Amino acid sequence: MRTQVAIIGAGPAGLLLSHLLAQGGVASVVLETRSEEYVAARIRAGILEHSSVELLEKAGLGDRIRTEGDHHRGIYLQWPGERHHLDFVNLAGRSVWVYGQTEVQKDLIAARRAGGQEIHYEVSDVAVHDDHVTFTDASGQSHRLDADAIAGCDGSFGPSRNAVAAAEKYEKIYPYSWLGILADVAPSTDELIYAWHPDGFALHSMRSATVSRLYLQVPNGTDPQSWSDDRIWEALATRLGHGQNGWKLTPGPITDKSVLPMRSYVQTPMRQGNLFLAGDAAHIVPPTGAKGLNLAIADVALLSKALIDKIKNRDPRKADSYSDDAQRRVWRCTHFSWWMTTMLHTSGDPFDAQLQLSQLKWVANSEAGATGLAENYAGLPIGY
Ligand SMILES: Cc1cc2nc3c(=O)[nH]c(=O)nc-3n(C[C@H](O)[C@H](O)[C@H](O)COP(=O)(O)OP(=O)(O)OC[C@H]3O[C@@H](n4cnc5c(N)ncnc54)[C@H](O)[C@@H]3O)c2cc1C
Q1: Closest approach atom of ligand 1 to CA 205
Q2: I want to staple 293 with a disulfide (CB 3.0 to 4.6 A). Which of 19, 45, 120, 186 is the partner?
Q3: Cα(11) to centroid of ligand 1, in Å?
Q4: CB within 8 A of 368, min separation 6: which ones?
Q5: Is the Cβ atom of 74 under 6 angstroms away from ligand 1?
Q6: Using a 6 Å cutoff on CB, does residue 40 contact ligand 1?
Q7: What is the second-level CATH architecture of the domain 2-71+96-171+264-346?
Q8: Is the pLDDT of residue 152 over 90?
Q9: Predicted structure pTM score
Q10: Where is the FAD-binding domain (predicted)?
Q11: Measured from the CB, is residue 187 less than 6 Å from ligand 1?
């Protein structure tokens, strides 16, 4: 088999890359270990930055975001007794959209299907070589796929990141995880609530007008089944301030319960020869800053242009600077995600708790502090 770009992974990074390449006249083949149904149903991120929405709209993928997504001007930051609204539009001139990763994935699958994209689902034994990829298809047949470039969009467990032999790796493991639930109940808030509490962090997020997504800080290694539904709602009510200034948290049937460990990871460079990494294959952020999906989109925005120039126009300059260009934003988002995480999660140390509260009060009450958070959360322009 032969194509111009072999893309490993049909997550948001891989499918968006194949879409943008096709729009630029470059052919690709996508390889994915999971089934299409599994990939489309994975529950993960839910916030799209301003630039991500602009890019998806420009690529013809914005219709459902406008009709089914929820436009948010900002977030609430809270600690016991106080809740503050940060208005990103007033502070930074940018906003975010609540639109689940599952929906982004469905839009991408529909667009790629309409475009006749070649995607091989349920492949195995994927191995990256200098100028080709080998794999076994769903029927058990072995293949060799030759390509001008290989895009490693296979997340944190795929083979691409380890194929970059001389990579420098930076990693931080956090001493806590998130217990996340999906609940069939209308959100009790119009915008996300990020809550610091002595019992641990809590986040009230949402997926739609009828589905809420909420998280609790829990110790690493927590078994989600060890938390009954009642216990979860009680902890959420306490940490999110049920009764504070008349605010009420409305519980509802929990349809999904999972524990998400938190880590930061950056690998550099994001290129070796013909292999280019994008998205979670090159970096992982804790979800507190809502950056994982947006970083994947930003990487692919740069990589698609770089590969179109390299393959179609025989101009390698953007491909040569891709890793450095992408890493500027990667490290900015890595810092922001670490900062949000360490400001909001309790460690049990009373000194740390006082510093966190001081930081939160400064962010909420100073225009400079609030603007810094707003600019990073709503997201810097692609190419920053
Ligand atoms: C469990 C979980 C929960 C998350 N929750 C949040 C959240 O609440 N908020 C937030 O902002 N972010 C969250 N994230 C992060 C966000 O979802 C990711 O940053 C985003 O999915 C990155 O997209 P990607 O395409 O780079 O990687 P992925 O979405 O991981 O896609 C990689 C694809 O490669 C495939 N693959 C793996 N190995 C191979 C192989 N050998 N061959 C071929 N294909 C392969 C995988 O099956 C997958 O489809 C979460 C991530 C995870 C894993």
Answers
A1: 8
A2: 45
A3: 6
A4: none
A5: no
A6: no
A7: 3-Layer(bba) Sandwich (3.50)
A8: yes
A9: 0.96
A10: 2-337
A11: no
Q: Is the model's pLDDT at 383 over the cut of 90?
A: no
For the Cβ of 287 lying below 6 angstroms from any atom of ligand 1, the answer is yes
- Do the Cβ atoms of 241 and 83 come closer than 8 Å? yes
How distant, in Å, are the alpha carbons of 21, 42, 47, 305 from that of 24? 5, 29, 27, 8
* Amino acid identity for residue 81 in this structure: G
Is the shortest distance between the CB of 158 and ligand 1 below 6 Å?
A: yes
Q: Is 277:259 a contact under the CB 8 Å cutoff?
A: no
* 30 within 8 A of 118, measured Cβ to Cβ: yes
Measure the CA–CA gap between 165 and 167, rounded to whole angstroms.
6
pLDDT in tens, 318-375: 999 999 999 999 999 999 999 999 999 999 999 999 999 999 999 999 999 999 999 9
Alpha carbon of residue 305 to chain centroid:
21
Pocket test for ligand 1, best of 154, 270, 377 (most atoms within 8 A of CB): 154
Contact 370, 86 (CB under 8 A): yes
Q: Give me the helix-helix angle, 367-378 and 350-365, nearest 10°.
A: 90
Asked if the model's pLDDT at residue 33 lies above 90, the reply is: yes
Percent residues over pLDDT 70 in the chain: 100
- The angle subtended at Cα 358 by Cα 344 and Cα 93, nearest 5°, is 70
